[in-house]
UniProtKB/TrEMBL annotation, chain A:
This is ABC transporter permease. Gene3D superfamilies: MetI-like. Keywords: Cell membrane, Membrane, Transmembrane, Transmembrane helix, Transport. Its main location: membrane. Belongs to the binding-protein-dependent transport system permease family. The keyword Ligase does not apply. The chain crosses the membrane at residues 105-127, 148-165, 177-195, 231-257, 277-300. InterPro entries: BPD_transp_1_N (IPR045621), MetI-like (IPR000515), MetI-like_sf (IPR035906). Residues 101-300 form the ABC transmembrane type-1 domain.
UniProtKB/TrEMBL annotation, chain B:
It comes from Microbispora corallina. Pfam families: BPD_transp_1 (PF00528). SUPFAM superfamilies: MetI-like. It comes from the Bacteria. This is Peptide ABC transporter permease. Residues 1-21 are annotated as: Disordered. It is found in: Cell membrane. It is a multi-pass membrane protein. Keywords: Cell membrane, Membrane, Transmembrane, Transmembrane helix, Transport. Residues 89-278 form the ABC transmembrane type-1 domain. InterPro entries: BP-dependent_transpt_permease, MetI-like, MetI-like_sf.
From TrEMBL, chain C:
PROSITE patterns: ABC_TRANSPORTER_1 (PS00211), ABC_TRANSPORTER_2 (PS50893). Pfam families: ABC_tran (PF00005), oligo_HPY (PF08352). This is Oligopeptide ABC transporter ATP-binding protein OppF. Its main location: membrane. It is a peripheral membrane protein. Transmembrane segments: none annotated. It comes from Microbispora corallina. The gene is oppD. It is found in: Cell membrane. InterPro entries: AAA+_ATPase, ABC_Ni/Peptide_Import, ABC_transporter-like_ATP-bd, ABC_transporter-like_CS, Oligopep_ABC_C, P-loop_NTPase. Residues 8-255, 350-592 form the ABC transporter domain. CDD domains: ABC_NikE_OppD_transporters.
Length: 312, 291, 617
């Protein structure tokens, strides 16, 4: 079997392990909750539900069964793609997630496009140029050290409350996507710009760059035709992390801008201990990240011929 | 946030670089960073010396801008923002430094087990890390908070759980590099027993760069902790905390935008100082110039 | 053209650094004519590469270049704009760097790399470009150029990569080819082929500026030789004259240090180790002839015979043998026939019996690294193991050291089982067999001082002051003073580090030391010191050496017997004089024919070996 296919299969198997592990972890978490799960479902520990209501809940959610049986039921449903029903929203978890997926994906995609473009542009312009590098390094350091929610709050204060350029509350329009994307993109763009520039500078120091110069190639040609591809490798390596940060950051940024989205849902679910929803989001993100990493792995091989398997 | 450092640290090249590095003079960046960190630590340890009464309500003086009497202004209940920031240093530092320390310790043991534990134990340890690394750190922390509930101590635990697998992976890579290094080969050829090689060569050369990495990562942990607080899942009111203060400020932006200025600046400056200090330490250790 | 193609005079290159200005090149100069090969020779840091790159306007970032004359094809290079420089590079001057693995962009196809100069200078486009590139690859001796065109550098062997790099450098038919250490990373047989390729360009009228540290390579190629030391040209002249009768003491020491295949075998002559002098003649700190004038005043270049100049107050004087440290008898009387003084017994210390080892390649197939190798290492002897990369010599060393277990066969140490027993049983005996490898620094724990590094090989019972004393004594044996006990090895020079490694290997009192390419990373004069040290230690302590090297000349100097490996098998084993003097195996003959010799001269260049010794990939 060609080693690429073998590797892909291996990665897919690992993905299944990761998803299963995440789901099991979430299930175990659910069972670790101090107190009676039925009470949690009934509206929190402090809620005074009648014993009859609690009994009904126990029957409905199968809480009387032994833990292993419950786990079996849980896993069986998961295999069929059934994530269960929300404790709080009286709606299937898959429905909740599907409803809220759109705005979050839009936000993450907008921030990703902005962040990667900004990072590569800044790195290409400033790599190996002492003055530009000093300025952009300071800016990058600042953006890396700043929490996205503070950027978000400041943007809101200035551009929405003061200047009224952008809406205060997310209304689903494209204009309401601008400020959240910037807040989300900036810290990540800072990291990516650093890594891209380091990659470029490392490549520009290599003997092959000297050779290219000695062939009469212009500086722009060396950067675009030679060095950029080398810089793409560490950026790809970091992209899995960066995309993860983007989706995770969306949780916080959605709260800042009072946007609809998965982040909003998950924060509410964590506050209200709505475990089926938390579990659903955890499983979904484990799956997403494993798939993203597989794609990045393939892209890496596309860029770096040394990583490709030898022809049989 | 600071990206996880995955490139294995090369102690041999570092030592060589260190030997070439000129004696470093005091640079302004690390000095300022250290001074600010001292201030923050003082605030965390003895907040009463620097400010008083973070929860003294004065509705008559609510939402004032910065000025005399209240240097940083007041919040919606008329509480002094400066005092709240001073008192907020403790939970912020506790979450940042505490979770890094715990995650570093757990990650070191975990990573060493992964590298040296053989096929079964080592493999299982690293598969577990893979599972935990399959989703973003914040989400992991949220899951933990969902289970154990909000609060300062729980936030420390949540972020520890979120950070530890990353440390484990770095430690494992570093341990594998050290174990395969020519100096361990030389020690084997000298006939040294395995325990001695482990304690004399492998552990010290894995732990030292881990310490440096952990220092640089304190900033990440502080931001993660502040994020939890911002979402209302960290220290609970009325205890002041920087992230939670920002969440409050967000609701009064139309009335007083400076309310959002100071807690955020406190977080960012602390993160910057921790990172600069960590990088200076790293540069000292690796013998190159601080970035 | 009647005048020189390239002319440089009064060239100085400085690099401003944080610690002050580094003067990389001082008052250098040369002239180069069409169809001529000029070699610039020197150790690392001598300024030879910087000098060559100045002709391309690529001396380095931040370099400050000054010259009285800097001309090429009649143009004054000092006045060129960046655009004019680019028109010169790759078009009129081709540049070949060493180590084609990193000098060709690893992420681009070989064809694209070779095509770049044609593209950049607008000399060809489209199909015509591809045709030209294929023709260039063929011209550079790359077999099956249409296939190679589409491959990536890592898919080619070292020799083919270097050929592709040369094809790229000559693509635009430049009149000058600068080759910076073009053969350094290559096996000798491949090296010979690459040198022939460069020589063919020279015969076709291209001037070649060859930068090299290897005098034997230079002897084969160059018409004229320039020797640099500490940024200065110390001697310049026709190759044949200069190499047969060097006038500058540094040139003489350099020549004496080259382990050659011809002439009597002598104890390697050591040169005093010292950094370049800050004032006066830079070589004064190492020179056997240096007097106060040399130390205080920089000698001017003076004519010395026809077409020669030398920068020395004592040109051509016979230097008294320099002594390293008065206390250290590193430097034995000059002509000591090594083998006569050491009598190896017939007792085998290490017996290697039919060992075989295969490894899995990344592609999944199995590769035989070692296949049925047998030999004995006798008490007190030095056995050389020579072969090219991939011949299995290092794998053999690792099996002898019991770092890896052979798939078949066995190794005996003092007649007792050594391979195939449990590590627990082997561990107490490990002190009998020690290793000195190519890169000493990485074999030291970076946190350890010299004392701890060496002390680790001592018995654990020895502690405190007595342990320190013993370490100091061991350092004394390898020619190092006690003042380095508390230093970190990273702060030592390459030669000192290798001495520390040898001291550590001596610490447990071994019967055998395996030396795996112990001098390959060192400058030739330092190499000579280490070889002299090893020879003396063997004479004094009777330790046996298994000496692994790609360099036949080095093996000839140190060893009594030599074993030649190829593709995992021993092709020939016997006394050094017999094997090297009258090789029986065809491979040994080809290997010896390819080794560049100091005194063979270029006109008597050995023809390239008939057989292609390595596969195409």
């Amino acid at each position: 079997m060609p080693s690429l296919a073998r590797r892909l299969l291996r990665r897919l198997a690992l993905t299944l392990v990761a998803v299963w592990g995440a789901a099991t972890l979430a299930f175990a978490g659910m069972r670790l909750v101090p107190g009676d799960p039925a009470r949690v479902i009934a509206g929190g520990v402090q809620a005074n539900a009648t014993p009859e209501v609690l009994d009904a809940i126990r029957d409905q959610y199968g809480l009387r069964e032994p833990v292993l049986v419950q786990y079996g039921v849980f896993a069986g449903r998961l295999l069929r793609g059934d994530l269960g029903g929300s404790y709080q929203l009286n709606q299937p978890v898959s429905g909740v997630i599907l409803d809220q997926l759109g705005p979050t994906v839009a936000l993450a995609a907008g921030a990703a496009a902005l962040g990667f473009t900004l990072a590569v542009a800044v790195a290409l312009v400033t790599a190996g140029r002492p003055h530009g590098r000093a300025v952009s390094r300071a800016l990058e350091f600042g953006s890396i050290s700043t929490p996205n929610f503070w950027i978000g709050v400041l943007l809101l204060a200035v551009f929405s409350f003061r200047l009224h350029w952008f809406p205060v509350i997310g209304d689903g329009g494209l204009r309401s996507l601008v400020l959240p994307s910037v807040a989300l993109a900036l810290p990540i763009a800072g990291v990516l710009a650093q890594v891209t520039r380091e990659g470029l500078e490392r490549a520009l120091d290599q003997p092959f760059a000297v050779t290219a110069r000695a062939r009469g190639a212009t500086e722009n040609r060396i950067r675009l035709r030679h060095a950029l591809r080398h810089a793409a490798l560490p950026v790809l390596t970091l992209s899995g992390w960066a995309l993860g940060e983007l989706l995770a950051g969306a949780v916080v940024v959605e709260t800042v801008f009072a946007r609809q989205g998965l982040g909003h849902v998950v924060v509410a679910a964590v506050r209200g201990r709505d475990f089926p929803v938390v579990t659903g989001v955890v499983v979904l993100s484990a799956l997403t990240f494993s798939l993203i990493n597989i794609v990045l792995d393939l892209l890496y091989r596309l860029v770096d011929p040394r990583m490709r398997p030898e022809p049989a | 946030m600071t990206a996880p450092t995955t490139a294995p640290y090369d102690p041999v090249r570092a030592a060589e670089a260190r030997s070439r590095a000129p004696r470093r003079q005091l640079r302004p960046g690390p000095v300022l960073a250290a001074a600010f960190l001292v201030l923050v630590c003082a605030a965390a340890a003895f907040p009463g010396l620097l400010a008083h009464a973070p929860d003294q309500v004065d509705p008559a003086a609510a939402l004032r801008g910065p000025g005399a009497g209240h240097l940083f202004g007041t919040d919606e209940l008329g509480r002094d923002v400066l005092a709240r920031i001073v008192y907020g240093a403790r939970p912020s530092l506790l979450v940042g430094a505490g979770s890094t320390l715990l995650a570093g310790l757990a990650g070191a043991a975990w990573g060493l087990l992964g590298a040296l534990g053989g096929r079964m134990a080592g493999g299982a340890a690293m598969r577990a890390a893979d599972v935990l690394l399959a989703f973003p750190a914040i989400l992991m922390a949220l899951l933990v908070v969902a289970v154990i509930g909000p609060g300062t101590r729980n936030a420390v635990l949540a972020i520890t759980v979120a950070l530890a697998p990353g440390f484990a992976r770095v430690v494992r890579v570093q341990a594998l590099v050290v174990r395969g290094s020519p100096y361990v080969r030389a020690a084997v050829n000298l006939g040294l027993p395995p325990v001695r090689i482990l304690t004399r060569h492998i552990v010290p050369n894995v732990v030292a760069p881990l310490l440096v990495l952990a220092t640089v990562n304190v900033g990440t942990a502080i931001i993660a902790g502040a994020s939890l607080s911002f979402l209302g899942l960290g220290p609970q009111p009325p205890d002041p905390e920087w992230g939670a203060m920002l969440a409050q400020a967000r609701d009064y932006l139309d009335a007083s935008w400076t309310l959002a200025l100071f807690p955020g600046a406190a977080i960012t400056l602390t993160v910057m100082s921790a990172t600069v200090a960590g990088r200076a330490l790293q540069a000292r250790y690796e013998g190159r110039d601080a970035a | 053209m009647s005048g020189p193609l390239a002319e440089v005079a009064g060239l100085s290159v400085e690099f401003p650094t944080r610690r002050g200005v580094v003067r990389a090149v001082r008052d250098a100069g040369f002239a180069l004519h069409a169809g001529e090969c000029l070699a610039v020779v020197g150790e690392s840091g001598s300024g030879k590469s910087v000098t060559a790159r100045t002709l391309l306007g690529l001396a380095g970032p931040g370099a400050r270049v000054r010259a009285d004359t800097l001309s090429f094809e009649g143009r004054d290079l000092r006045a060129l704009t960046p655009r004019e420089w680019r028109r010169l590079r790759g078009r009129r001057i081709g540049y070949v760097l060493q180590d084609a693995l990193t000098s060709l962009d690893p992420l681009r196809r070989v064809g694209d790399e070779v095509a770049e100069p044609l593209e950049v200078h607008g000399l060809a486009t489209g199909d015509d470009l591809d045709d030209q590139v294929v023709a260039l690859l063929a011209e550079a001796g790359v077999p099956d150029p249409e296939t190679r065109f589409l491959q990536y550098p890592h898919e080619l062997s070292g020799g083919l990569r270097q050929r592709a790099l040369i094809a790229s450098a000559i693509a635009a038919r430049p009149s000058l080819l600068i080759a910076d250490e073009p053969t350094t990373a290559l096996d000798v047989t491949v090296q010979a082929q690459v040198l022939d390729l460069l020589d063919a360009r020279r015969r076709d009228g291209t001037a070649v500026l060859l930068i090299s540290h290897d005098l034997a390579v230079v002897a084969r190629m160059a018409d004229r030789v320039t020797i640099m030391y500490g940024g200065l040209v110390v001697e310049e002249g026709p190759a044949a004259d200069l190499l047969s009768s060097p006038a500058h003491p540094y040139a003489a020491d350099l020549l004496a240090a080259v382990p050659d295949l011809d002439g009597p075998v002598r104890e390697p002559r050591a040169v005093r180790p010292a950094p370049a002098s800050p004032s006066g003649c830079p070589y004064a700190s190492r020179c056997g002839l240096a007097d106060d004038r040399c130390r205080g005043e920089l000698p001017p270049p003076v004519p010395y015979g026809p077409g020669r100049t030398v920068r020395c107050f004592h040109p051509g004087e016979d230097a008294p043998r320099p002594t390293a440290r008065p206390a250290v008898p590193d430097v034995a009387p000059d002509v000591v026939p090594v083998r006569a003084s050491t009598v190896a017994s017939e007792r085998a210390v290490v017996s290697v019996r039919g060992i075989a080892k295969r490894f899995r390649s990344p592609g999944g197939s199995w590769r035989r690294a070692v296949d049925g190798v047998s030999f004995e290492l006798r008490a007190g002897e030095a056995l050389g193991l020579v072969g090219e990369s991939g011949s299995g010599k290092s794998t053999t060393a690792r099996i002898v050291l019991a770092e890896i277990a052979p798939d078949a066969g066995e190794v005996l140490l003092d007649g007792e089982a050594w391979s195939g027993v449990r590590e627990r049983e082997r561990r107490p005996r490990r002190s009998r067999i020690q290793l000195v490898d190519q890169d000493p620094l990485s074999s030291f724990d970076p946190r350890f001082t010299v004392e701890r590094v060496v002390g680790e090989g001592l018995p654990r019972g020895l502690t405190g002051a007595r342990r320190r004393e013993r370490v100091a004594a061991l350092l004394g044996e390898v020619g190092l003073g006690p003042e380095i006990l508390d230093r970190l090895p990273a702060r030592l020079s390459g030669g000192q580090r290798q001495r520390v490694a040898i001291a550590r290997a001596l610490a447990p009192g071994p019967e055998v030391i395996v030396c795996d390419e112990p001098v390959s990373a060192l400058d030739v004069t330092v190499q000579a010191q280490i070889l002299a040290l090893l020879a003396r230690l063997r004479r004094e302590s009777g330790v046996s050496l298994l000496f692994i090297s790609h360099d036949v000349g080095v093996v000839r100097q140190v060893c009594d017997r030599v074993a030649v490996m190829k593709d995992g098998s021993l092709v020939e084993i016997g006394g050094v004089a017999a094997v090297l003097g009258a090789p029986r195996a065809p491979y040994t003959r080809a290997l010896l024919a390819a080794v560049p010799r100091l005194h063979a001269g270029r006109r008597a260049a050995v023809p390239a070996p008939a057989m292609d010794l390595k596969g195409p990939t």
